[in-house]
What does this fold into?
Amino acid sequence: MSADGLLDHCLELLSPVGRPRSRRMFGGHGLYVDDLFIALIAFERLYLKADDSTRARFEAAGCEPFVYEAKGKRVSVGYWTAPEEAMDSPEAMAPWARLAMQAALQARQAKPAPRPRKLSTAGKAPGPARKTAASAANATAAAARGAKKR
It folds into this structure.
C-alpha cells in the first residue's frame, strides 16, 4: 500500500470514534480524532497512543512499541502498533482507537496548565500599548508646546 493509501485507510479506520484528520510530521503523519492526538504513521505502520492503563492490552494483542534511535540509545514514546485484525475494518479498529483516545485524554489532563505570561515593563521604554498616564500627559504637553511655537 502506498503512503497516501495507508494514510487514507487509517483515517477511515478511525472515523467511527470521531472526526479524524492528519498532519505531516517527522517524515510520517500525526493522526488526530476531534483534535486529540491519538496516533501516528511511521515506517509504513500505524501506532496508537498507549499509557500505563492501556499498555497491557496492546502487549497481550502482540502489538509492538514505536521505538527509534537517538544518540545511540533506543527510545520508546508510548505508541504501539495496532493489532493486525484491527487494520481490517473501522469496526475492528474502534475499541483500539477508544483506548488510544483514553490514553491521550489522560496525558492531556496530566499536563500542568500553562502559566499565564507575565507582561513586564521594567527597563523597557513604553510601547504604544503600554503608555502610562504620565507619559501620555507628557506627550500631550509636548505637542501643545510645539503648536504654540509655530
Summary: The longest helix spans residues 90-110. Residues 28 and 42 are 5 Å apart (CA to CA). The chain has one domain: 3-109.
